[in-house]
Write a structure and sequence with these properties.
This protein has 84 residues and is mainly β. The chain has one domain. The protein is 0% helix and 35% strand. It has a four-stranded antiparallel beta sheet with strand order 1-2-7-8, with no helix packed on it. A two-stranded antiparallel ribbon has the order 3-6.
Length: 84
Amino acid sequence: MCEDDKPCPKCDCMMSRGFLSGFPGSSAVLTAWCDGEPKRKRGFALDSVRIDPKDCVYLQAFRCAGCGYIEIYARAADSINTST
């Protein structure tokens, strides 16, 4: 079965591949899973956490067209590329 052609485990309708965005709008941030505990750092306006991109992978999501069920995966193949 192709990664982009996945049946829903809840209702058996087809699921489509997508991604999770940190912010809705025209300029979005992809969501990632990072290994380990978060380490807080102080920012100017917001508290944030320190991350090492080598320890993170982008989250891949599938959404069912029938019931709206969403499955989320963090696969090593979706590792964050720091060379760009």
